[in-house]
Amino acid sequence: MDGDGIERAVRRTLDGIGLAYEAMPCDPALADTAAFCEHYGVALADSANAIVVVGKAEPRRYACCVVLATTRLDVNGVVRKRLGTRKASFASADETRELTGMLIGGVTPIGLPEDLPIWVDAAVMDRERIILGGGSRSLKIRVAPQLFDHLPEVEVVEGLATQLG
What is the mean pLDDT of residues 105-114? Predict the structure, then answer.
């Protein structure tokens, strides 16, 4: 599915859930979190990154982790243990695209394959609204974190990420 098709699928999923959201078009060159937040005046604390991770054992196990931009995903601790592997890392851009159909900078937990677990850091749920990727580098979605109550395979995880600095 191309970027436009993924964006349409994301909007259909959101419309089906019935939770209010704002679709925020963005310049694809500004899709990376820091650039997006600076250019569009969005607080980093309201921006949530969806990161595909992989366990380095065979068969490879994947998950999508959602963490605030003001935090660091605990890949070598919590993620590795949850995947049940000795080593874990961020999935490559190619693996991410193959698994989700999305490019880094546009990955969203909305509309992922139903067998891909989604782990959401508990701090994300404390925000009033969050900004997520919209499925492509040209769309972001502003939505309440209660969105995760309506997606399959979601688990809220205490300590999935740690505060930066």
Answer: 92
